[in-house]
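pipeline/complex-builder :: batch 7 item 3
reading input block
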Amino acid sequence: MTIQRTFIMVKPDGVKRGLIGEIINRFEQKGFTLLNAELMNVDRQKAEYHYMELKEKPFFEELVDFITSGPVFAMVWEGESIIEVSRIMIGKTSPLEAMPGTIRGDFAFSKAENVIHGSDSLLSAEREIANFFDPLSICSARDKDYPFDER
Ligand code: DAT
Ligand code: MG
């Protein structure tokens, strides 16, 4: 058993296209637990910190422009091996490689604007969660009243 937390974000294109509910649904159906969620605007500082590992890439400015272009739906989810499993559910970065049945495979048609973000390691999950959420605002899946039923 490796219960992990990860940072999942519906990007501005996904929010505009009305995909928040669809994405929450997939994570709930998989048995994962939502610990916090917020529709928010992202400023450049937050976006640059979020994508710090890509700072030297030629598309970095375009990426920051995109993430700050409209509201995102930021979430913290918890579950068994969720970092690896959520990356599989999300699918490959490029729409040409993302398999049908994955979120990007079913909904994304652009590499730059690909609907959803998910952390790729424990270390980035911790950094990304702390960038978007106050630690005290995150629910605990081990609270006796939450989640509401055993899944
Ligand atoms: P992922 O989101 O699958 O973890 P990543 O961390 O390599 O992919 O890149 C972060 C985001 O940057 C990605 O979701 C979309 C954008 N991006 C990546 N490669 C790109 C490229 N070659 N051209 C334009 N945008 C790109
Ligand atoms: Mg990434």
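note: The CA atoms of residues 84 and 120 lie 7 Å apart.
queue -> next item
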